[in-house]
Every structure is written in structure tokens, then in C-alpha cells.
Amino acid sequence: MTRAVIETRLDGVPLLARGKVRDIYDLGRELLIVATDRLSAFDVVLPTPIPGRGIVLTQLSAFWFARTAPIIPNHLITARWDEFPASLRPFADQLRGRAMIVRKARRIDVECIVRGYLAGSAWAEYRERGTVCGQPLPPGLRRNQRLAEPIFTPTTKAASGHDENIEPERLGQMVGPELAGRMQAISLEIYRYAHEYARSRGLILADTKIEMGLVDGELILIDELLTPDSSRYWDVELYEPGRDQPSFDKQFVRDWLEASGWNKMPPAPALPPDVVERTAQKYREAYRRLVGVPLPEEDA
Predict the structure, then answer these.
(1) 205 and which of 72, 198, 201, 261 could share a cystine (Cβ 3.0–4.6 Å)?
(2) Are residues 114 and 99 in the same domain?
């Protein structure tokens, strides 16, 4: 199994932020974003990393940034190690495959969520009130059923605690109606494109979270894109509405944590080796299916 990178330390390179998963460094005109193998669940970083997970997140984001560039530009400059500056070469064991150099952008503090299926918190709200993020849906829908049309359900991006669902009208008040309309239209276009592509690879893209920013007034994609961390992928052949769906993300870890009796407050329990191994396999399988080839050995 790939050696886990839990926390990076790049002597001489200024550290801007250390998030739940990513370490961000300031390169002057650009940023260096490193996806570690840390894993969070229920807003708590777990003590056990998933080796190679950060490599999948970076390489799959790079894949999707390239494919969606005709829809909207993005912040990626390069995720290819052979294109990194010489000053970063001493840190190859921490960066190779899991880091990307990106343009600096002014982040819009909104998560653009698109839902094509009635899953997760959307199902819980629908079952209680017949709505999803305040938007009414037809009665009689089943859990994980495909919606007639994907819906845009943005949330605020909280610095701490839980994000808050907001209606599209509130987004317009926050960023202006024109920009809000563009964010909604682009999010839906990306989802529809990625959903069709994923189905051709044997996967269903149930929902996804997209982040955007501004560079000199230009709207671009930032952060990650269509990874198993930001999206819910199911197996086309196993899909059946009305029941749980086997997924290619950290739901396997969430299920184990729920069954463990953990109260979802820090500290989280350590994961057993078999849960770590099966979760790592799910991430790598998602990459293989979507890209069409296994993760390159030089990255893995």
C-alpha cells in the first residue's frame, strides 16, 4: 500500500493554511495545494489516514478540470511533477502525485451543490417536509430516486461548524443576481456533462459540490472537482432506488463509525486495517473507472 502522508512540512515554503484534508502553501504568484491522506467524517479529522487517498483526489481533479475547461476556466496550472519548480524537488516524497500548482483567486464563500438524485440530507428533508433545501418536489418519490431534473441547492461555506443551506434567491443577494445566475447555470451544466460521462464509465453521479472564485473579475472553478470527496458515485449495475447504494467514497467509513457507537465528538476512534484497505480500494476504483486506466504507478 502507498505510504500515507498525514501532514506536509516544506522547509522554506510559507504555509498559508492547513485544512481538514489539504495543506496550502504560498509560492508568490501561485499557490501549492497538497491533498494529504487525512480523512474527516462528521466534521472531525480521523486519527487514521487512508494511504494514497490524496493522490486520487489530486489526479482526479486534474482530469475533470481538463475535461470541463470548455465550460468554465479553472485555477489549475499543473499537477504534473515534472513541471514543478526545482525549489520543490527536495520534497518529492511529500508532493509527487498529490500536489497541484494553481492560480490565486478570491474565493466565493458558497458551495454550489447540484443534486440529481434524492440522497443523503436531501432525502431526510424530503421525507419530513416534501422539499429539498426549501424547494418543493413531487410527492411519492423514493429514497435515492433520480429526480426529473437536477436541482441547484447552494450552501454557505462555514469557516467552522456546519454549512447552511440557502435558497438561490439568497445567493443572488450575497453575490449579485447576475453572478448567482451564472454560478447556477455553470454548476448545472457541469453536473449534466459529468453525469453523462460517468454513466458511460459504469458510474452514477448522484450529486456533487463545486467551488468557484474570481480572478480579475473572471469566474473560475477552484478547490477540487468531481472527486469521491466532493461527489457521490454509485455503481450503475447495482443501482436500485428505495434502498442504500454501494458508493465510491468515504460512506464506508461513515457506516463503520456509526456502528462503532462513537458520539461524533473529538477524538474519533482509530480505523481498523480492513476498513482502511477497503476505503483505499474504493477511491482507486473510482479513479480507474472514470479515467479508464489505473492510477499511474509513479503517482501511486
Answers:
(1) 198
(2) no
CA dist 26 and 251 (Å) reads: 33
Cell numbers standing for residue 8:
506536509
**Which cell goes with 285?**
476504483
Residue 45 C-alpha cell reads as 479529522
Instruction: List Cβ neighbours of 293 (8 Å cut-off, separation of 6 or more).
Output: none
Report the distance separating Cα 266 and Cα 43, nearest Å: 9
Q: Which residue is associated with the grid cell 472553478?
A: 221
- Binning pLDDT at 50, 70 and 90, where does residue 162 land? low
Q: Which residues pair with 235 in a beta bridge?
A: 203
Which three cell numbers, joined as nine digits, stand for 297?
504507478
| Under 8 Å between Cβ of 78 and 84 | yes
- The parent domain of residue 48 ranges over 15-103+273-291
Whether residue 118 is found in the same domain as residue 52:
no
Quick: pLDDT tens for 50-107. 999 999 999 999 999 999 999 999 999 999 999 999 999 999 999 999 999 999 999 9
Q: How many CB atoms lie within 10 A of CB 126?
A: 21
Spatial CA neighbour of 206 closest among 247, 242, 158: 247
